[in-house]
Amino acid sequence: MGALVKTVNLTKVYPNGVRANDAINISVEEGKIVGIIGPNGAGKTTLIRQILGLLRPTEGRIEILGEDISKRPGIIRDNIGYCPQGILYFPSLTVKETVEFALKFKGLKKEELSQKIDKVLR
Ligand SMILES: Nc1ncnc2c1ncn2[C@@H]1O[C@H](COP(=O)(O)OP(=O)(O)O)[C@@H](O)[C@H]1O
Ligand SMILES: [Mg+2]
Questions:
Q1: What is 5-79's CATH number, 3.90.1150.10, 3.40.50.300, 3.50.50.60, 3.40.50.1980?
Q2: Given this model, what pLDDT does residue 115 score?
Q3: Which residues in the chain belong to E strands, given as ranges?
Q4: Ligand 1 centroid to 42 CA: how many Å?
C-alpha cells in the first residue's frame, strides 16, 4: 500500500494559459496532518480539486493508496472526505435530516442508519 495521497509532477495549466500548479510532488503518509499554505492564487484550491478528481491534471498524476485516480476514480470517493471552507447545508432540513443526508452519502445502509444518526446527534 502506498501513501494515502501522493502527487507526481502534478501540473495544471488552465485553458487561458494560467499555470496554477507546476510539477508538485507531495506525499501524505498515514497518521500525518499536512497543511498547504500560500497566498491567494498560489494554486491551493486547484490542487485540492485535482485530488478530489474534479479537475484533470495537465501533466503528472495522483495516487491514493498507491492507485492512480485516473484509472480508478472510485478510490477517491471511498477514501476522501472533503470539508469545504464555506458551510454547506440546506436550511430547509432539520439537524437530524442533515445528518441522515450526510450518512446516506457515506453509503450507510438503512439498518445502520438510525443507530448512527442517534450516535452523531448525541
Ligand atoms: N477556472 C480557472 N480558469 C483559469 N484560471 C484559473 C481558474 N481557477 C483558478 N485559476 C487561476 O489559477 C491560479 C491558482 O488559483 P487557485 O487554485 O484558486 O489558488 P488558491 O486557492 O491558492 O487561491 C490563480 O492564478 C487563478 O487565477
Ligand atoms: Mg483557494
A1: 3.40.50.300
A2: 93
A3: 5-13, 19-24, 27-28, 59-64, 67-68
A4: 7
CA-nearest of 43, 58, 51, 78 to 13 is: 58
Which residue, by CA, sits nearest to atom 4 of ligand 1?
14
Averaged pLDDT in 10-residue chunks for the chain of 122 residues = 92 97 95 93 96 96 96 92 78 93 86 92 94
Domain(s) of CATH 3.40.50.300: residues in the chain:
5-79
By most ligand atoms within 8 Å of CB, the mutation choice from 16, 19, 46, 52 for ligand 1 is 46
Phi, then psi, of 54 in degrees rounded to 5: -90, -20
Distance 33 CA to ligand 1 centre (A): 24
The three cell numbers of residue 79 are: 477514501
Portion of the chain with pLDDT greater than 90, in percent: 75
pLDDT digits (tens, 9 = 90+) for 17-35: 999 999 999 999 999 999 9
- What's the 41 CA to ligand 1 centre distance in angstroms? 5
